[in-house]
């Protein structure tokens, strides 16, 4: 496919940063998140490189473990990077404030394109669901919140519409109380005309299969009635990213979602929108913490 210059710009978050030049902001992001993640690992009790599947990328870092009481809620974080960049090793920057609030945090990794196809990544995250529920049972947790950034937000919705999730007993489905979708991608069709598709090599079948907007009808009834959808945008996200989120929220409402919310975070771009999650006073950190119904 030929690259469309305008779509390529719209889906290049680095171009929209007001802090750094486009060729600098991603490297700065890696530096900031890497440093914060390394500091977290020295301050918060953790189990690193815990396998949840058989492939090299199917590993999780678990923070809190036995240092928190039984019944403490769980937050699962899935990083972005267009399914081809970043990793869990630099994605634990969100942990410290949540741990301080009494939340166990699981940072999920996954294999990246072009070594694997998007469908493989979707299946990997779907397989993590069993692992997450086993952790919840181990720690007697009654509440799980899923948080994903960019491509990670897409993977949250593909998990919730998966055959595995739909086959769960209602009481298991209800353990998932909220999802936080941070500047996500919900219709993958435009990506075919961007530089990102060089690694992804998306087919029309894959676009249809893995675009959450095409499959909202598969969300279980209890999910539509009780799950809180918090969709987040950065003030300096591109118009196309904003359109994707607005379209998702509209579709959720039309299909019967009872709890959905849009939060636009002022003064941030696509990158420091999540970098700032290391700060307990950051507006998005506070909003996520308040989602927990448990007495934390």
TrEMBL record:
SUPFAM superfamilies per the UniProt record, alphabetical: alpha/beta-Hydrolases
Keyword Transmembrane helix set for record: no
Keywords: Hydrolase
Residue span(s) of domain BD-FAE-like: 65-164
Keyword 4Fe-4S attached: no
InterPro entries: AB_hydrolase_fold, BD-FAE-like_dom, GDXG_lipolytic_enzyme
Superkingdom assignment: Eukaryota
Pfam families tied to this protein: BD-FAE
GO MF term list: arylformamidase activity
Record's protein name: BD-FAE-like domain-containing protein
